[in-house]
Structure formats: C-alpha cells, structure tokens
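Ticket #4471: structure export looks truncated?
Reporter: QA, pipeline team
Priority: medium

Steps to reproduce: submit the single chain below to the structure queue and open the exported record.
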Amino acid sequence: MNAARRAVAPGVAGVRERSIGWRVIAAKEVADHLLSTRFAVLLLLVALAAVGSVYAASGGIREIAERAQEAPSLFLQVFTAAPERVPSFLTLVGFLAPLLGVAFGFDAVNGERAQRTLPRLVAQPIRRDDVINGKFVGGLAVIVAVLTALTLIVAGLGIVRLGITPTADEAGRLLAWLVLTAVYVGFWLAFATLWSVVLRRAATSALVSISVWLVLTLFTGFLVGLVADAVAPVPDSPTVEEVLRNARVQQWLGRLSPAVLYEEATVVLLNPQIRTVGIVLPRQVDQAIPSPLPLDQSLLVVWPQIVGLAALCVVCFAAAYVLFMRQEIRA
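Actual output as written to the record:
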C-alpha cells in the first residue's frame, strides 16, 4: 500500500504543478500591469474619454426623459448617445479598447527575451505552455477589470445625473455587451501576443499591431469600397440588382474586419429597436413590427458576429501558442 502511494504521489504532484503554473504567471502579469506606468496612462485616457462623453450626453438624454418617461431603453442611451462634437461612450470604447489589448500584448514574449528572463520562466515547475497561457490570462483579466469598472462608473454617473435605473433587460444587455467587448479586446491581445512571438523586437511588434489596428478600424470602409467597386461595379445608370450586389459585396468584405463585427453586434445589443444588421429593403421596413426585441432575440441576430469574433481570437492565440511551443528559448 505504501509503495503504491509513493508511486502515485509523483504523478499527482506533477498534475498539481501543471495546474498552478499558468496561475503563477497570470498573477505575476496582473501585478506587473497594475503597477506599470503604461497601465496608468491608458486607464486615465480611456476613463477621461468615457466619462467626458457620458457627461456631455446627459443633457440631451435628460430632455428625452422629460418628454417621454416611457421611452424604451432610455438608460442604454447613456452609452449610445452622441452629442455634438463628442463621440458616444460606445464609439470611444470601440476605438480605444483595442489599444489596451495591443499595449498588454506587444511585448509579452519578446520583452522577456530582451530582458533575458524567458529561460527562467520556463524553469521547473513552470512549463513552457504555462508562460503563454498565463500571460494571456493575466493581460485579459486586467483589461476585463478595467472595462467592468468603467462600465459601472458610467452607469452610476447616468443614474446620478438622470435619475434613471436600468431594467433587468437593460442590465442583461450591458452584461452581454461587456462579454462581447472582452472577446473583442481578447482578439487584439492575442493578435499582439502573436507578433511578440514572431518578432524579436518589441518596438517592431507594437508597430505592426498598431498599424493593423488602424487599417482595420479607420480604413476598412475605404478599402472595402474599392474592392467592391472592382468586383461588382455600379454603372452610371444602375439597376436595383446592381446596387444591391455592390452593397452585399461591401457588407461581406467588411465583415472580414473584427472592428465591423464588433460594431454590428454592439449596435444590436445596446439598441433593442434594431432588428437586423443586413441590408433592409423599403418593403421589408413597411412589413416590420415596430416593437423592441427582447435580449434573447437580439443575441440571435448577432450570434454570427459573436462567433466570428470568438473564432478570430481563438485562431490568433492558437497560432501564438503553436509558434511559441516550437521556438528555441534557452539560447
């Protein structure tokens, strides 16, 4: 009996070491991020932009509330309303949140190489895959904590300034949007981590990640329009079918960008009045029932976009994982 226990004990110890290795790395990453100047600057930038947009929009929302106390999803307008010259909270998060993922991932691996600390991280009992897993989990945990705190601050500011409390459906929509945003930022974290594995210099990986982010965020519409005009040109006197074909090509090409997928899903989740993200013809508008969608129906509308973002995140992280596992790191 004692011999059997001694034979099983090493295996159990190995399993326990393997199960806690990534947690150790994740805890280290969380501590490093929270104490870094990079985190403080990014948090201040996102917080000021978010609170400023909500404060500027609260006046217009208050006027809407005074005119129509029974307006549907009035509380959600705190996040979606865009006053003059100030973008909405939703727009700011969609533009700035990827910066958090890029900032926490561009030097995840090559930064350790530059400091010559990577061989120490893979020393026993930390395994090689614990390093990449722990770094991703730690960075994502910090980002989710920041987004959750900002959402609660904005919601609290809306309640105080407007005197409107969210309903159960509105709270559920905010929670679904928060999960969606975490997946979206997780994609950019995985994307930046991938380049930190591929490239040796942190500055180069940061430049590549930010360049791709800018192209996919700011220039997607322009590039998609050029490709669509070449694939499905619209003549000077187009027919309805030619215009629809060009619009459908633009729509499908645009959905190759994670920014477009996130924007479509976010608009539907935070606005129950929207019933589709596709092309709507005038006859379809006339036949639609003018009533808000429940949360489960809104989730069904944008389920392809959510799955697409999750798939992109998984693919990027899987590529970073495989490349990291095949690299020589003790040299």
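Status: closed, not a bug. The export was complete when the record was re-opened. Leaving a note from the reviewer for reference: The chain is about 75% helix and 0% strand.
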